[in-house]
Amino acid sequence: MMDEINKSIEVLQNGGLILYPTDSVWSIGCDATNEEAIKKVFALKGIKEANSLLCLVANEAMLERYVEQVPDLAYDIMDLATKPTTIIYDKPKGIAPNLVAKDNTLAIRVASDKFCQYLIGKYKKPIVATSANLAGQKTPINFKEIDAAILSGVDYVVNLEPENQNAVPSSIIKLGMDGLVKVIRE
Q: Which class is domain 2-185?
């Protein structure tokens, strides 16, 4: 696993794209603080930059470095979640501007699988995690379903099996500083 982490970090540091297994589905990733790398993700997927992507952090301490204020409820949601859960936070900071939504929010998930935790922890920055599909295509549930254009469009494909063989996209919940909770995707 460490060899895969080191190869991935080298690509991320050079503004490249990786294809990697996450705690939900196979994802396209890049440095979440690198505006040019994020543009490459939009181009590869064939989506407009107005679309928002999510990013992964290694732990709650890293989350707190990239969000102005993490609502208390977010910690409860993370503790009680039975599947990977992405939370949309107000007022992200230290992130590439083209990753932040027009309403000044950002979808972030604390990674729950070992590979992502180690990779992001060693890289010391959040990593984009967007499903490995082209615009208009369904989310691939396993590696075999990933389009050839995605496979050839990334700079490195991580050679590891996902911990979770029954991949499903994460739940997405929007948390407002006013305590408002909205389920975007179950």
A: alpha beta
